[in-house]
Task: inverse folding
């Protein structure tokens, strides 16, 4: 164990605010895994007992009665090269894990946690101190997407920080693309199947959704149909990248989604994104092969559920840009 203050100026690639998620843990009886990547420093109140025991601001597993270890998997919000890991055991004194190890892997697309393979060791099984920041330098020149914290044999960890340098996927970098669906660019929701719990207008709002209530959410379907939303694009354009963000929708993300383009001038309809499996609480990004220009797009979710944001990045056509310019001049 070493002090690594030289790395703490780097971004925390796991941080919730950067899109990180604790996608799996084998146990979280005493305290929920999501606490591990909260940006705020951990806090503690004495004598706050809930149904399961003392309340801790961290991830805490039950006391093992058989040999073994406990693990939690974090999807990095910013995939990249890891330079240092901090296992912060703040306020865990009689119940911190005496040892921890950290593994990482690099996955393509949007896998289910059970599909992750190829784990590589970032930090070997190392002793931890209680109620302190345990820092470990990492020497691995590789882009990782997921990190797995393993505690030996059990106990509580307040925060896991993964300091490093982001490495973007060039397939997701589109020069000159704008969000054709965005409210701020002139996009509008013009129809939807259901808006029982949340307005579909939220899908195209600026910024990220802070909570589930800032997204679009339908009621549970009890028939064989599916929910959908229809968006009028800012102007005519060709979609190159679809972003479907299910952040905050953990037990109620749709299982699958598809996007269909439509050109209202000709009546043509064409697939933009075929029916694709979705993960809970994930900002999915799907590059799109060349598709015709559209004035509208319909998002179908199967069968129901909720979504935080829909982004349709693409290039405006010359006609589309002309229409936006004309409107701006007429109204300025
Ligand atoms: N007082 C405790 O913290 N006990 C237990 N933990 C919680 N959260 O209650 C334990 O056994 O580790």
Result:
């Amino acid at each position: 164990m070493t002090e690594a203050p030289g790395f703490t100026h780097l971004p925390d690639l796991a941080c919730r605010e950067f899109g990180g998620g604790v996608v799996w843990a084998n146990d979280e009886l005493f305290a929920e895994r999501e606490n591990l990547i909260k940006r705020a420093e951990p806090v503690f109140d004495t004598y706050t007992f809930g149904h399961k025991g003392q309340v801790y601001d961290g991830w805490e597993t039950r006391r093992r009665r058989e040999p073994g270890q406990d693990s939690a998997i974090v999807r990095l919000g910013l995939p990249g090269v890891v330079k240092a890991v901090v296992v912060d055991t703040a306020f865990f004194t009689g119940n911190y894990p005496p040892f921890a190890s950290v593994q990482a892997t690099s996955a393509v697309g949007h896998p289910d946690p059970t599909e992750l393979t190829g784990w590589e060791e970032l930090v070997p099984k190392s002793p931890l101190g209680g109620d302190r920041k345990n820092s470990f330098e990492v020497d691995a020149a590789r882009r990782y997407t997921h990190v797995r914290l393993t505690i030996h044999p059990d106990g509580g960890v307040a925060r896991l920080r993964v300091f490093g340098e982001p490495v973007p996927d060039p397939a997701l970098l589109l020069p000159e693309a704008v969000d054709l669906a965005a409210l701020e660019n002139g996009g509008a929701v013009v129809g939807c199947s259901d808006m029982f719990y949340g307005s579909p207008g939220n899908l195209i709002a600026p910024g990220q959704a802070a909570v589930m209530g800032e997204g679009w959410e339908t009621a549970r379907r009890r028939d064989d149909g599916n929910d959908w939303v229809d968006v009028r694009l800012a102007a005519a354009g060709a979609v190159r990248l679809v972003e479907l963000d299910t952040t905050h929708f953990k037990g109620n993300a749709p299982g699958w989604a598809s996007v269909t383009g439509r050109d209202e001038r000709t009546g043509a309809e064409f697939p933009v994104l075929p029916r694709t499996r979705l993960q809970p609480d994930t900002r999915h990004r799907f590059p799109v092969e060349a598709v015709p220009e559209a004035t509208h797009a319909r998002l179908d979710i199967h069968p129901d559920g909720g979504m935080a944001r829909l982004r349709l990045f693409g290039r405006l056509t010359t006609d589309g840009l002309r229409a936006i310019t004309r409107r701006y001049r007429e109204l300025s």
Q: What stands out?
A: The domain at 5-166 is CATH 2.60.120.260 (Jelly Rolls). The pocket of allantoate ion is lined by residues 30, 53-54, 56, 60, 63, 95 (CB under 6 Å).
